[in-house]
Design goal:
By secondary structure, this protein is of the alpha/beta class. Helix content is 33%, strand content 27%. It contains twelve helices and 21 strands. The strands form four sheets. It has an eight-stranded mixed sheet with strand order 7-6-15-16-17-14-18-21. A hairpin with a 6-residue loop joins strand 15 and strand 16. Helix 11 packs across helix 12. The longest helix has 23 residues. The chain is globular, with a radius of gyration of 22 Å. Bound molecules: flavin-adenine dinucleotide and 3,4-dihydroxybenzoic acid (DHB). The site of flavin-adenine dinucleotide has 30 residues, from helix 1 and helix 8.
């Protein structure tokens, strides 16, 4: 027997997008259910992003999610750009007139904070579901079906469905043929081997390093735990990377005179493939896609998580206007209101990826262009400011259920 329910918004996926959406909707008095295939422990431990734009931090604070973030997040003024054996600091805070900075706070911690907040609020949040389906997408009452962890089948009639189920989810593929106008995609011949290590970071701010043998990134999670990445071929077998080889390669690529990389036990390692992907529009009637379900960026530039947060701030505002106040204009324009930011970030991530990664046997012309561009970034105030504005976030993220207007432009301080 199937148990039947009713809610306002059925949310598929308990990643940062789905959980934050449910939190924001609740603040606006809109009910939702979140269903997730994985366990709570798995969602809370999945190592992914760590770099937050200041606009993301400001939104999380404004909606009551800033306590641990403020206590434990590591605020950085900028990043280091390293190439040709030189390391240069780019101070985003100065370049943006003190308006923008970045914060290291792991996605795992954001997910834990969100799950704790939703659970304290007695939200409908179900882990370890299976056989998720979305149906009746052509009606005003789309339906969400799933089997819970005890084997019980459920059917939830909704006013709207939010596909927050990542790139491999079921919502985007459920859009009928012709429902997506443009699916733009680019793959890259490399991936990132990422490690989490019990080794104090050997840098005060994140280092992006272009090396003739490939890209390396030195980030961190806490003053005791480092997070580092190495460019590897897309189809690399991780078993060919024992811990000593990873540390040797990081040391070699990140080396500058007088600097030493601190090593320690590797707690976790994995390889992430790289892809750019945008599905347009990000909605089909009453089903709305947010985060990785709608778009993927390569991780250079740290945009994935920040874009997911921006999408759901926009979507929560629109759905509250629709479902609480009966005003559909913002919901109808959801995709249009997200896509300027999505394409801006897609360009930034593609550009930083192309500038920083080196493939074996690369055309010397390509290498010279990469180095010329990097040199320009560390010597031209205008070029560095362009990077600072793009990296640190755009206009304040809008979560404002009382608004009737379209979002502000991405660059509100530019006349
Ligand atoms: P997700 O976090 O993917 O959440 C989607 C959720 O939906 C998952 O929990 C999934 O289990 C669930 N789900 C899927 N299918 C179903 C279904 N049928 N029913 C129910 N639930 C379902 N970004 C950066 O900026 N920097 C990084 O270093 C970085 N590293 C990454 C490493 C990896 C391995 C990956 C995959 C991504 C990484 N990203 C990184 C990107 C960033 O983590 C994502 O942009 C972010 O997680 C997007 O959040 P989301 O909620 O949209 O999607
Ligand atoms: C981190 C990840 C990124 O993709 C990035 O560009 C910077 C930092 C991180 O995991 O800390």
């Amino acid at each position: 027997m199937t148990v039947k329910h009713r809610t306002q918004v059925g949310i598929v996926g308990a990643g940062p997008a789905g959980l934050l959406l449910s939190h924001l909707l609740a603040l606006g008095g809109v009910d939702s259910i979140v269903i997730e295939t994985r366990s709570r422990a798995y969602c809370e431990a999945r190592q992914r992003a760590g770099m937050l734009e200041s606009t993301t931090v400001e939104l999380l604070r404004a909606v009551g999610l800033g306590r641990r973030l403020d206590a434990e997040g590591l605020e950085h003024n900028g990043i280091y750009l390293q190439f040709a054996g030189e390391r240069h600091h780019v101070n985003f805070r100065k370049l943006t007139g003190g308006r923008r900075w970045v914060t290291i706070y792991a996605q795992t911690e954001i997910v834990k904070d969100l799950i704790r907040a939703r659970t304290a609020d007695r939200a409908a949040l179900e882990f370890e579901v299976s056989e998720t389906e979305v149906a009746d997408l052509d009606s005003d009452r789309p339906v969400l079906r799933y089997t819970d962890s005890a084997g019980q089948r459920h059917e939830v009639t909704c006013d709207a469905i939010a596909g927050c189920d990542g790139f491999h989810g079921i919502c985007r593929p459920a859009i009928p043929r012709g429902g997506l106008r443009l699916v733009a995609e680019r793959s890259y011949p490399y991936g990132w081997l990422g490690i989490l290590a019990k080794a104090p970071p050997s840098t005060d701010e994140v280092i992006y390093c272009r090396h003739e043998d490939g890209f390396a990134l030195h980030s961190m999670r806490t003053p005791e735990v480092g997070r580092l990445y190495l460019q590897v071929p897309a189809d690399e077998d991780i078993t060919t990377w024992p811990d000593d080889r990873i540390w040797d390669e990081l040391q070699r690529r990140l080396a500058v005179p007088g600097w030493e990389l601190q090593t320690g036990p590797i707690l976790e390692k994995g390889i992430t493939p790289m892809r750019s992907f945008v599905a347009t529009p990000m909605q089909y009637r009453r089903m709305y896609l947010a985060g990785d379900a709608a778009h993927i960026v390569p991780p250079t530039g740290a945009k994935g998580l920040n874009l997911a947060v921006a999408d759901v701030a926009t979507l929560a505002t629109a759905l509250i206007r629709l479902l609480r106040d009966g005003e559909p204009a913002l919901a109808d324009a959801y995709s249009e209101h997200c896509l300027e930011r999505v394409w801006r970030a897609t360009h930034l991530a593609w550009w930083m990826t192309a500038m920083m990664h080196v493939v074996p046997g690369q055309d010397p012309f390509e290498s010279a262009l990469q180095l010329a561009q990097l040199r320009n970034l560390v010597t031209s105030h205008a070029a560095a400011t362009m990077l600072a504005e793009n990296y640190t976030g755009y206009a304040p993220l809008r979560y404002d259920p009382s608004t009737r207007t379209a979002p502000t432009p991405l660059w509100p301080w530019v006349a």
